[in-house]
Amino acid sequence: MWKDIITEDLISINPQISDKADLFDKMVNHAYSLDYILNRKKFLKAIWDREKLSNTQLVQGVAFPHARTDSVSSIFVSIIILKDGVDYENPELGKAKIIFFFGCSETDNQKYLQLLAQASRLARNKKFRNQLMHAKNPAQVIEILTSYDNELEKDKDPSNYLMILVLNKPDLMSDVLSALVEIGINNASIVDSVSMARKLAYDIPVFAGLSYIGGNNSKSSSMLFCHITNPRIPLHLSNLLKSNGIDLKKKGTGYIQLIKLENIIGNPEEEINL
Fold it and tell me: What is the fold, at CATH topology level, of the domain defined by 161-260?
């Protein structure tokens, strides 16, 4: 994914930055000079408008300023690495030292969402952050990024499948959704459900109070349904979740089922309006 988007001229190591406003100005000016941005003033406003919704420093030391607007000619990602960091106006997460700066046109939603999701996941990886901070030049940054790239190859003979994911720990759903977006799925439906353990413990008198019900067993669960055309997606998703600390093979976490469909009527794809 990264090899098709990132280029050395979009990477800057230890530029002179005084504060957050200076960072945004210089990021936008640089992308504008490379013809990724058509209207500098309009894009800068879009970046600040997004920032007003919520601070985009989402991981300690890492920020993700981004905007989707018709002032962008084509999707781009710029990476800025600052040894001493910059005050990103989010005291709880400290200074921002790694900045993933995204720009997206109004026609690149899918790739935009995938890049945001993957950057967010990688940023939580301490090893990845350390590698970027020690990169000496843009070529090394690209080498690091591509070493973590695990884009799924498209299936040569696509068919229709229903993928069902049961998650017995609903608090992990945000990570699961981010992983789905990263592999290009945005058509899922989610159903909040009740686990069998809860039913036995609280609704079936004869079983109520049994010791095996207690402990760390989940009292609720979530079910996710989505249409896919590549049968390798479930294993790829499982590996992606595992890299993020969610091991579906661990008892009580959840599982994935794949059902081949004979036919599908209608269009399952759902556009996310950013």
Answer: Alpha-Beta Plaits (3.30.70)
